[in-house]
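Continuing the batch. This is chain 6 of the set; chains 1 through 5 are on the previous pages. Same settings as before, nothing changed between runs. Recording input and output for traceability.
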Amino acid sequence: MSPGAAAPALPLPAVAAALGAGALWGLAFLAPLALADWSPLAISGGRYLAYALVALVALLAGPRRPTSAREWLAAWLLSLLGNVIYYLLFAYAVRAAGSYLPTLVIGALPVTLAIVGQWRERRPWRARHLPPLALIVAGLACVNLGESGTVRGEDYPAGVLAAVAALACWTLFGAANSDYLKRHPALPAGHWNNLLGAGLLPVALLMLAVAPDTAARSPADWQHFWWIAAGTGLTAGWAASGLWNLASRGLPVALAGQLIVCETLFASAYAALWHGALPPAATLAGAALLVAGVLLAIRAFAAQPS
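Output for chain 6:
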């Protein structure tokens, strides 16, 4: 790009899709609060079952499109990696190491996706990319320091390894999912989203079957459970994944990864509304740093040469 040429315009619909995905993913953090007496395995199974059923209905009701066995396999493997394996590793990390460290490790996802994205897309690193990353890291640290009552779990080293493995799983999923969509431009993002969701059906049923706390539940308990599961499956599952696929196709992985940080902001806001109280000062300071980092990231990557 010549010095006098204008920077290429960033696709605003893709940016809006990434922000929308973060807003909807943030709703998933409310499910454990609303279902405090249900196990994470049951909550996750219910959410993924709702996601899978919505995706199946959308596949049956939408335009008929031939789907190869290779596409089904790719969708199933990616969904297994980015949903089920990631979540189970994170849940174990929280139990083994306590809540603080796993949350902080997973909070580094925007940074790891940015680094992997730059490398995979062979884009050069420039000085303007470092300030937004530094602000995001500082903001995530402040948000996590604002959390109270952090206690180490009973198997801390194993929890650390599980948290790092969970971070690696979603980083790999984010990069591979974006790469797959860009290598298959004729594949509609909505159809791909439905394939990702439909592949979760057998896994979700298995998770519910082996969850230790699904027996001896009253009809009222199940009614409440399914309302929450259906809501999170539709919003934080199917709709959020669809928006993320649109963003993944239209944005560099490095920028899309940094926009995931908005999930933390929305989750904090939803939690504050749920509890009816403002977050701690450290959390508010972290939120301001995160917003500044995201805005700088958009500006930095908008000026990125193609």
